[in-house]
Amino acid sequence: MTVQDFERFQFQPFILEALKELKFTKPTEIQERLIPSIQRGESAIGQSQTGTGKTHAYLLPIINKIDPERQEVQAVITAPTRELATQIYHEIGKVIKWNEENPITAKLFVGGTDKARAIEKLKTQPQIVVGTPGRIHDLVKEQALQVYTANQIVVDEADLVLDMGFIEDVDQIAARMQEDLQILVFSATIPEKLKPFLKKYLENPRYTHVAPEQATATKVEHILVPLRHRNKKSLLKSMLEAYNPYLAIIFTNTKKMADEVADGLIEKGMKVGRIHGDLPPRERKKVMKQINSLEFQYVVATDLAARGIDIEGVSHVINYELPSDLDFYIHRVGRTARAGYSGIAATIYDPSDEDAIVRLEKMGITFKNMDLEQDEWINIGERNKRKARKKQVDEIDNLAKSKVKKPKKVKPGYKKKMNKEMEDFKKRQKRLKRK
Ligand code: ADP
Ligand code: MG
Predict the structure, then answer these.
(1) Staple partner for 79: which of 46, 85, 150, 253, CB 3.0–4.6 Å?
(2) Measuring from atom 15 of ligand 1, which residue has the nearest CA?
(3) Distance between CA 87 and CA 101 in Å, rounded?
(4) For the whole model, what pTM was predicted?
(5) Which secondary structure element, helix H or strand E, spans residue 133, and what is its range?
(6) Quick one: 359 and 237 in the same domain?
(7) How many angstroms is it from 47 CA to the middle of ligand 1?
């Protein structure tokens, strides 16, 4: 195997060794386009769909540039959730371990862990700092962590950083860093509300948008499953059994619903993992480990907890409910079909989701309509069939009305009589139709 396509970046040999082990043979598009400008020291905004390799687009040039002789902070990498920060930290480990001669140091700082121990860890400053903005800012304020020596900062999953109210912390960290600061912002979507932040922090950033050909990875099959007055948890259970997935993530909009769904499935005898923000850090860590060692076939998750985490081998994403912010649909579905594999994204919907579905279709998503029949998947027609059927009923209704003459003089009880006549007429019509 060769990593020849990475050679033009002139990375140090140990990085090429790491890439070999990672089995990355050629850079992804966002890596291809951003690595050279990051190497030139330019600030950048990298926008591309989930699963396109944004992490290594910044990790590789940052690690490559670290001066092992300088035992001080040289780069700060922030991520909005503990899991994501932890994952980035592990990715760094997989690369820097190859530089045995001049060891590079990286340290992880996330909330929900013992602060005194974090301060203890900082007796020697690491060269790369990874963590959540809140905890990093905290340690900077405590003067345990010295970031003034660093001139590179990464804001990964920037839209979520904003949503979670971490922008202020990022601001405070950045304010204490070198003046010629290189800011690298990554996100799958750049919502309007992020723009003031970008303007404030980035003067002339290189903006790289790798436009997806479709709104999500092409190998995802998007499936709509109508709820149709069925019990939603039973439907979910049947869907999971019919898919028999390698690994499915079931998304809910709230922690409460995540618990409800997970408990419901457990009650039905299924082995289910769950990740959401209310789990104590130790528990979350344990679940992540279990997920990655494939102890679960099903994982129930909320958007925030699952964002940006690279769980390998997610074959199915199930939307137990559609997110109100449709960008999250893209993020959720981005969990499957990563790095070229194919995947299925199935959404349980009811008629109140119609508007959201139309908007998703406008975003370029093509849905297949499917349902379970005796535990087998079958293709069903367009979801607008429902409307068509309703129209047919209305027509029969009108016809019935026109057939039933309204008496000129209104007698008591006429309404009842008329309704009965109409019902009889409708029944006859339906019987005729069936024949
Ligand atoms: P993003 O941050 O854009 O959502 P990630 O950085 O998490 O995506 O990468 C998604 C997956 O693709 C990861 O499993 C990662 O190891 C893999 N990957 C990244 N770059 C490459 C590459 N050049 N070749 C093959 N796989 C890659
Ligand atoms: Mg990412």
Answers:
(1) 85
(2) 53
(3) 25
(4) 0.62
(5) helix 133-141
(6) yes
(7) 14
Question: What is the distance in A from the centroid of ligand 1 to the CA of 53?
Answer: 3
Are 276 and 189 part of one and the same domain?
no
End residue of a domain, out of 342, 360, 379: 379
Instruction: Starting from the CA of residue 21, give the closest ligand.
Output: 1
What is the residue-averaged pLDDT of the chain?
84
Neighbours of ion ligand 2 (CB under 5 A): 54, 308
Does residue 236 fall inside a structural domain?
yes
DSSP at 358:
H
Distance CA 41, CA 75 (A): 12
What is the 54 CA–ligand 2 centroid distance (Å)?
5
Domain that holds residue 392: 387-434
Distance 8 CA to ligand 1 centre (A): 19
Cα separation, 19 vs 95, whole angstroms: 8
**Do 183 and 204 meet the contact criterion of CB atoms below 8 Å apart?**
no
My answer on whether 356 and 423 are in the same domain is: no
Atom of ligand 1 nearest to the CA of 24: 24
Q: In this predicted model, which residue has the larger pLDDT, 401 or 351?
A: 351
Q: Ligand 1 pocket by C-beta < 6 Å: which residues?
A: 24, 27-28, 31, 48, 50-56, 310, 338-339
Domain identity same for 230 and 326: yes
For residues 151 and 17, state if they share a domain.
Answer: yes
How many angstroms is it from 146 CA to the middle of ligand 2?
26
Digit-coded pLDDT (tens) for 289-305:
888 888 888 999 998 77
Q: Are residues 191 and 304 in the same domain?
A: no
Residue 218 main-chain phi, psi, to 5 deg: -70, -25
- CA dist list (Å): 326 to 3, 203, 205, 317, 383: 37, 30, 27, 15, 19
Residue of 15, 48, 55, 161 best suited for mutating to test ligand 1, as the one with most atoms within 8 Å of CB: 55
Inter-CA distances, 424 with 48, 234, 342, 401, 411, Å:
60, 36, 53, 12, 20
pLDDT at res. 141: 96
215 occurs within a structural domain: no
Q: For a ligand 1 pocket test, name from 3, 24, 34 the mutation site with the most ligand atoms within 8 angstroms of its C-beta.
A: 24
115 CB neighbour count, 10 Å cutoff = 14
Q: How many domains does the chain have?
A: 3
